[in-house]
Specification:
The protein has about 375 residues and is of the alpha+beta class. The protein is built from twelve helices and 17 strands. Among the domains are: about 120 residues, no CATH class; about 130 residues, 3-Layer(aba) Sandwich (Glutaredoxin). The longest helix is centred in the middle third of the chain and has 32 residues.
Length: about 375
C-alpha cells in the first residue's frame, strides 16, 4: 500500500522553463477568517534544500518574497493569536490551518476563503494546473479516505482478513488514480508547468524506467534541463541499474561494531538487502514478517543485510530497535539519515524497501513485503 505504508524522504519540487533565479511575491489575504491570525509560515524545497520563512500578519494580510528557478510546491501554515479568554495557543489543525500552493516567479495572491486551508490563488499558472489536477484526483481521494477509515476500524477490531482486503482495494484505487490522473495528465500536457510534478507522482518511489523514460523524453528540453528535470533523469538512470535482472551494485558499509561489510561477501547465497530505520513505523511493522521469513529459510542459506537510515548520533536507538525486534542478521549503517551512501546509490527515497539478490549477485525481486517475500522464497527453495 504505497501511500500510507512508506515513509517518504521529501517532497520533490515541480519544474518548467526558467534558466535563472527570478523573484516571486506572495500577497496573502486573511480577512475572511474568524480567528485572528498572528503569523504565517512558508516552506518549500528547491534543489534538495529546504527553505523556510515567516511573516507577521498585519491588518489581516501577510507578504512573502523570494527567488525561484522554477515552479515549486510550497506549504503555508498559520498560527493564530492566543485565546483572549484562556490565554492559551490555538491548537494546530492540518485540515484547517495548512494550505498547499504552487509558486513561480510572479506576483501571487493567496486568499483564504472560509478557513486558512481553503484558498483561491491568482497569478500562478502552475497553481492553476495544480487545482485542475486536484479536481481530477478528488473522486479517487474520496474513495481512499473512506477505505482508510474502514481499514483502521478493521485493525482495531483485530480483523486481519478484512484489513487485508481493504488494503488491496486501496492499492487498486491508488494505482488507478496514478494512471488516470497523473499519468494521463503528463501524457496529454507535456509542456505544462506541472508536467514534471505529475510525472513524479505517476512514477512513484519505485521508478519503472521502461515505463517512465519514454514519457520523460516527450517533455520539452526546457523542463528536462531544470533542477527537477535533471533529478528525474538521475532517478531513471538509477532505476535502470536496479531493475529486475540487473547485477546489484556492490557497496561496503560498517556494521554495529564498526566492521566493514560488503554486499559481494554474500555471493553464493540469496540475500535480501533491506532499507529501514528505527524511527520508521511501517518498517517496524514489517519486521515481524521479515523475521518469520528469515527464521524459516536461514538454514537453507537465506541471508538478510539491513541498511539503516538512522540519524546521526542515533546509534543507541538503532541498536535498541535491532534488539527489540529480534533482527538476528547483518546490519550496516553510516547513520546519515536520508543521505545514507547506500540509499543514495540505490535511489531510495522511501522506506521500507528491499531487493532480493541471487547467489550470482543479480537482482531477482524488489519490495517483497509481507507474504510476497515468503512466497518468493518458497518458490526459490522448493525448486
Amino acid at each position: 500500500m504505497r501511500k500510507p505504508a512508506l515513509v517518504l524522504a521529501f517532497v520533490l519540487s515541480s519544474a518548467a522553463a526558467f534558466s535563472q533565479y527570478q523573484g516571486f511575491v506572495i500577497k496573502g489575504d486573511l480577512s475572511a477568517l474568524k480567528a485572528p491570525a498572528e503569523m504565517v509560515y512558508l516552506n518549500y524545497y528547491l534543489a534538495g534544500q529546504s527553505y523556510q520563512d515567516s511573516a507577521r500578519v498585519k491588518d489581516d494580510h501577510y507578504r512573502f518574497a523570494g527567488n525561484l528557478m522554477e515552479p515549486v510546491q510550497a506549504s503555508l501554515r498559520v498560527k493564530y493569536k492566543e485565546s483572549r479568554v484562556a490565554q492559551t495557543p490555538v491548537p494546530f489543525n492540518s485540515k484547517r490551518d495548512y494550505a498547499v500552493v504552487f509558486l513561480e516567479p510572479s506576483e501571487i495572491t493567496v486568499t483564504s476563503v472560509d478557513s486558512f486551508s481553503n484558498v483561491t490563488v491568482a497569478g500562478s499558472k502552475a497553481d492553476d494546473e495544480y487545482r485542475k489536477l486536484q479536481l481530477m484526483a478528488k473522486p479517487y481521494d474520496d474513495q481512499l479516505a473512506l477505505l482508510y477509515v474502514k481499514m483502521s476500524a478493521a485493525k482495531k477490531e483485530n480483523n486481519p482478513e478484512a484489513a487485508k482486503a481493504l488494503e488491496q482495494m486501496v492499492d487498486s484505487i491508488d494505482a488507478l488514480a496514478n494512471e488516470k490522473v497523473y499519468g494521463a495528465y503528463v501524457k496529454a500536457h507535456p509542456s505544462s508547468p506541472l508536467a514534471l510534478y505529475a510525472l513524479r507522482n505517476w512514477a512513484g518511489y519505485e521508478v519503472d524506467a521502461e515505463k517512465v523514460e519514454p514519457v520523460f523524453k516527450t517533455l520539452p528540453s526546457s523542463a528536462r534541463n531544470t533542477l527537477a528535470g535533471k533529478d528525474m533523469a538521475d532517478k531513471i538512470a538509477i532505476a535502470k541499474k536496479t531493475g529486475i535482472g540487473q547485477m546489484a551494485m556492490d557497496f561496503t558499509q560498517n556494521d554495529t561494531l564498526g566492521r566493514p561489510v560488503s554486499l559481494t561477501s554474500f555471493r553464493g547465497k540469496y540475500v535480501l538487502v533491506d532499507f529501514w530505520a528505527s524511527w520508521c513505523g511501517p518498517c517496524r511493522a514489517e519486521n515481524p514478517n521479515l523475521v518469520r521469513a528469515f527464521n524459516k529459510y536461514r538454514e537453507k542459506g537465506f541471508q538478510v543485510l539491513s541498511v539503516s537510515l538512522d540519524r546521526p548520533g542515533a546509534k543507541d536507538r538503532w541498536l535498541k530497535a535491532i534488539h527489540d525486534d529480534k533482527l538476528e542478521w547483518y546490519h550496516v549503517s553510516d547513520l546519515q539519515f536520508w543521505n545514507n551512501a547506500v540509499a543514495r546509490q540505490y535511489g531510495i527515497e522511501a522506506i521500507p524497501q528491499n531487493l532480493l539478490i541471487d547467489p550470482a549477485g543479480k537482482i531477482v525481486g524488489k519490495n517483497l513485503q509481507g507474504e510476497k517475500l515468503e512466497q518468493k522464497l518458497a518458490s526459490i527453495y522448493t525448486n
